[in-house]
Amino acid sequence: LKSLVKIFIVYSNSNVNADRSLIVKELQVRKELEFALIDLLNGIMRTDAVTCVTVVCDTVYLSVFEGTLFRRTITVPFVMIVVEESEDLLSPNFDTLESLRESRKDGCNVYVIILANGLQVTRLLRFGDRYRILDTRAKYIMLHDVRLFHSRLHYIWKRIVNVVFLKYHKTIVGNARGKAWFDLSTVPFPNPIKGIFISRRVDIWRNGKFHYGRDLFADKTRNLNKEVLNVVYYDHVPSVIVMKSNESTKVGGVEIEILNTLAQKMNFAPKLYQSFNAEAHKWGQKQSNGSFSGLLGEMVNGKADLALGNLQYTPYHLELTDLSIPYTSQCWTFLTPEALTDNSWKTLVLPFKLYMWIAVLLVLLVTGSIFYGLAVYYVNLLDCTNTLPITEKPTAGAKPVGLYLFGEITNSILYTYGMLLVVSLPKLPSGWCIRVLTGCYWLYCILLVVSYKASMTAILANPAPRVTIDTLKELVDSKITCGAWGGESKKFFLESLDEIGQKISDRLVNVDNPEEAASRIADGVFAYYDSSDFLKYLSVKRKNSRMEFENSTANNIEVSKTERDLHIMTDCVVNIPISIGFHKNSPLKPLADVYIRRIVEVGLVEKWLNDAMYRIITMDTSEEEVKALINLKKLYCAFIALAIGYTLSFLCLLGEFIHWHFIVKKDPNFDKYAMDIYYIKKNKKHKI
Predict the structure, then answer these.
(1) Topology (CATH) of 2-210
(2) Strands (E), 357-396
(3) Are 251 and 242 in contact (CB under 8 A)?
(4) CA 539, CA 334: separation in Å to the nearest integer?
(5) Helix axes 532-552, 604-619, angle to 10 degrees
(6) Residue 677: which residues within 8 A CB-CB, separation 6 or more?
(7) How far apart are CA 90 and CA 59, in angstroms?
(8) Angle in degrees, 0-180, between the axes of helices 432-461 and 409-420, rounded to the nearest 10
(9) Are 580 and 255 contacting, i.e. CB atoms less than 8 angstroms apart?
(10) CA 607 to CA 601: how far, in whole Å?
(11) Whole-angstrom Cα distance, residue 622 to residue 581?
(12) How many other CB atoms are there within 10 angstroms of residue 357's CB atom?
């Protein structure tokens, strides 16, 4: 019944047979190896959670994995892979490759590699590490072979540290041959391998038991015993901030604080350094010869154990390195130019929107027409009834006192407009209906004027509005060139599913110097892509350097004022998780992830981020204090209104002049010595 719950998957391209005469001739040795493996596996299964066991063996040691081993071990699934003696495991056949992939996919965390040919083991380990076919953080059991410890394989033992090597020994007493015993050793992690690999003994197995009873797979990363780890970094705010003063250099930032916390908890000493020509190569890219430069080059070549520098959690970086769990996410967007809008000439119309002005005009015309209609109706009523008091009876040809205000349509509109400007009427109008309407209209005018004045005051007191680019669509419509560092940014936009992102990729160029990009942005012809925090630092640095230049060089003030201010686009193109880098298949990552998760949960990352950005925010002079100051530029609107009045008045005067000389004087009845008689006759003619 016990064997039914075990899984046996055997892949082989040759006839499987347990030939007992190839390498090991004594049957007793194989039996002792089988018993040692049984004790090893049972010990692992009792202390750790084992999901499944992957066994890789050849035909020489196939007899070790017979029914006895599976009957006497604790029930777990087994993945059994039998390889040919001549198979090149640096390029395994399809069956072997698929078996390894399935075991990795199923989460097998114990590997038993028992091969007679040590070169096959070395090639299997190199292949599994390069393509991540093997789980390097699993527990490994393999035979001791000096070919595994060649200098070209030393990098493997910086990645596979949970391993036990079984070395067979014979005991000879006189002419009698005793039972075999095994020396159990492991890699000397965290101590570095210097030239020659010297394994470290952990226990001895003899006569069916372990001599010391130690934990064979103790966590070696929990205490690194002050081991020096190489940490490569790149200056990128706010992750890493390099502050230079005289000859000293101080490195700070969010990731430096995380590194110091990990160093304290895991007991290692970080050795910080920058890659060769870091300012030029930055994070690094793939060269024509296939190698990598910059920070990534240090990681790929195995020179650095950790990498700091705002590494994005992307498939590109995951392929080259191991990344910790993200400690934060950043908004990646564009730094764009902004332009001041000199709209002071239209300040008079800014307090109200277009539809509000249309409503005010319509109310003015409608109310003026109603006043005129009521005045005409009241005059006709008086003419019919002749009921006005004697004191208010108009003289011949004159209108009642108070009704002359609205007796003509032009006067009605003008006086209605005057009330809108809070100008009192020269005479209280006659007729109660007009008086009631006048009172209601005055209330409307007061509310409207108060709202207009309040809005006008706010406009005059606040700084001038700015034209900014805040969306990708606006950026595309602006036709300015976009820039970013590295080919991955261009690839990101090129593979975008929306049309706008693809249009940006067409105009995206590589930028090696962010400060040069800031200068081009200030000219109004460029936009730069990076994280919002770094763009904030870039814009503040540019603005402060420009202010220092203005203060030191007064003759160039006019030239500097032509530069645009820098604006960070409010819409995020993408929110990208940010992580700390480890070398590929690093054994430090699992425990480091635990500590980083705790650091994030208690809020230390947010605190360190605020500390890193505090100095930059305080240096930002873009948020000037709003002062209620009125300057001449803000009053351009008054002079424009005055100029419009002068122009219209002059045109009216010119029209009257033309009418007087070309119409009135040309009339045959015109007599300049009897002007009153001329106008009386003309009025009578109009009445007829």
Answers:
(1) Rossmann fold (3.40.50)
(2) none
(3) yes
(4) 11
(5) 20
(6) 671
(7) 19
(8) 50
(9) yes
(10) 12
(11) 35
(12) 12
Would you kindly state where each structural domain of the chain is located, as residue ranges? 2-210, 354-461, 466-589, 633-687
What are the residues facing 121 on neighbouring strands? none
Separation in Å, CA 18 to CA 32, 57, 142, 252: 16, 11, 19, 61
Taking the whole predicted model, whether its pTM rises above 0.90 is answered as no
Per the listing, tokens 């990795």 go with 104
**Cβ partners under 8 Å of residue 614, min gap 6:** none
CB 567 within 8 A of CB 335: yes
Query: What's the one-letter identity of residue 560?
Result: S
Closest by alpha carbon to 80, among 133, 12, 33, 5?
12
CATH code for the domain defined by 354-461: 1.10.287
Whole-number Å distance between alpha carbons of 414 and 154:
97
CA distance 205 to 168: 10
Token pair 């009605």 in the structure block, residue: 412
Omega prior to 238 cis, within 30 of 0? yes
3-state DSSP assignment of residue 349: coil
The residue type found at 322 is D
What the block records as the tokens of 345 is: 């000439």
Please tell me whether residue 10 adopts helix, strand or coil conformation: coil
Neighbours of 536 (CB within 10 A): 20
Q: Residue 205's CB: how many other CB atoms inside 10 A?
A: 21
The Cα–Cα gap between 96 and 13 comes to 9
Pairing status of strand 78-82 against strand 53-57? parallel
Residue 242's H or E segment, with its range, is strand 241-245
The radius of gyration of the chain from alpha carbons, rounded to an integer in Å, stands at 45
List b or e across 308-320, with b for residues whose CB sees 16 or more CB atoms inside 10 angstroms. bbbbbbeeebbeb
* CB half-sphere exposure, 220, CA atoms < 13 A: 23
Phi and psi dihedrals of 437, rounded to 5? Answer: -65, -40
**CB proximity list for 661: less than 8 A, separation 6 or greater:** none
Residue bearing tokens 């940014």:
489
Give Cα separations from 422 to 419, 442, 446 (angstroms): 5, 8, 7
On the CB side of 640, CA atoms within 13 Å amount to: 13
Rounded distance between C-alpha atoms, residue 376 and residue 16, angstroms: 120
* Cis peptide bond N-terminal to 190, omega within 30: yes
- How many C-beta atoms surround the C-beta of residue 25 within 10 A? 9
What is the secondary structure of 561-585 as a DSSP string?
A: TTSPEEEE-SS-SEEEEEEEEE-TT
Q: Taking the chain (688 residues) in consecutive chunks of 10 residues, what is each chunk's mean pLDDT?
A: 38 42 53 91 91 94 88 91 93 94 94 94 95 95 94 93 92 57 92 88 90 91 93 94 83 95 95 91 90 93 94 94 95 88 72 89 91 83 58 48 75 86 81 85 90 84 77 90 91 90 91 91 92 93 73 49 81 94 95 96 94 85 53 75 88 88 80 75 62
Task: Give residue for tokens 């019919």.
Answer: 384
Structure tokens at 181: 């015993």
HSE-CB at 520 with a 13 A cutoff on CA atoms is: 17
How many CB atoms are closer than 10 A to CB 210? 18
Q: What angle do CA 29, 34, 39 make, to 5 degrees?
A: 125
Does the domain made of 466-589 have the CATH classification 3.40.190.10? yes
For residue 402, what is the DSSP state? T
Q: Which helix (H) or strand (E) holds 686?
A: helix 675-687
462 contacts 435 by C-beta, under 8 angstroms: no
Q: Which two tokens stand for residue 497?
A: 């599913």
* DSSP-derived pairing of the beta strands 526-531 and 306-312: unpaired
